[in-house]
Design a protein that fits this description.
5% of the residues lie in helices and 60% in strands. It contains 1 helix and 15 strands; from the N terminus they run βββββββββαββββββ. The protein has a 15-stranded mixed beta sheet, with helices on one face. A hairpin with a 6-residue loop joins strand 11 and strand 12. The longest helix has 10 residues. The two termini are 15 Å apart.
């Protein structure tokens, strides 16, 4: 069960945003990731709880940011309920999309798991609903993912395969690179893996 800490920063000016303390593991029905976020001063910023089925679809998502909350799942595309800080108003949303995304590294692993690309695969288009900080506002985004390299590295626990993805935002054409090993993000824009207490899990 990988357990560790990511640092999150603004990908443009590198302003520190938060630290995400996480643990994740495959299970009998798929994969689950839970984390809590703290600000640069150590204040509580929110949490992530994401569960995927064995096909990589989100069967449960619960996000907290400040006093905002989102609960969602794959249902007729993706469906969610967003609750305001007072707890008095909840708004429902539904989009014909494949999955969710956001600032947490969990969503990069989840998208890679959903697409299951190989180096010979063509670039694949995916539609995602992004929940943007700090109020978890939903926004539909279209991306293209391609697995450009998959390389095994020797470690004390056996070979570790690192996958390099090229991700393109289809509305702007902006491209960036994501490196993932198993269920851990090694590097991505705005994300740095600061601590890892056990090796990444291997997916079958």
């Amino acid at each position: 069960m990988p357990r560790g800490r990511y640092s999150l920063h603004d990908p443009h000016d590198h302003t520190p945003l938060a630290e995400e303390h996480f643990q994740c593991a495959p299970g009998p029905s798929g994969w689950r990731y839970v984390s809590r976020l703290t600000g640069p001063a150590g204040d509580h910023r929110g949490s992530v709880d994401l569960a995927l089925d064995d096909l990589g679809r989100p069967i449960r998502l619960e996000l907290h940011a400040g006093d905002w909350q989102v609960r969602g799942a794959a249902l007729d595309g993706v469906t969610w309920v967003r609750t305001d800080p007072t707890g008095l108003h909840a708004t429902e949303g539904n989009v014909r999309a494949h999955a969710f995304t956001g600032t947490s590294p969990a969503f990069l692993v989840a998208t890679a798991r959903l697409l299951r690309l190989t180096p010979s695969s063509a670039a694949t288009r995916v539609r995602l609903v992004a929940f943007t900080d700090p109020v978890l506002a939903p926004r539909t985004v279209d991306q293209s993912w391609a697995l450009v390299n998959s390389e095994a590295h020797a470690t004390d626990n056996g070979p570790l395969t690192v996958d390099e993805y090229q991700v393109t935002a289809l509305d702007t054409g902006e491209q960036h690179t994501v490196h993932i090993a198993g269920d851990v993000v090694l590097a991505a824009p705005g994300i740095e893996l600061e601590d890892l207490q056990s090796p990444p899990s291997r997916f079958d």
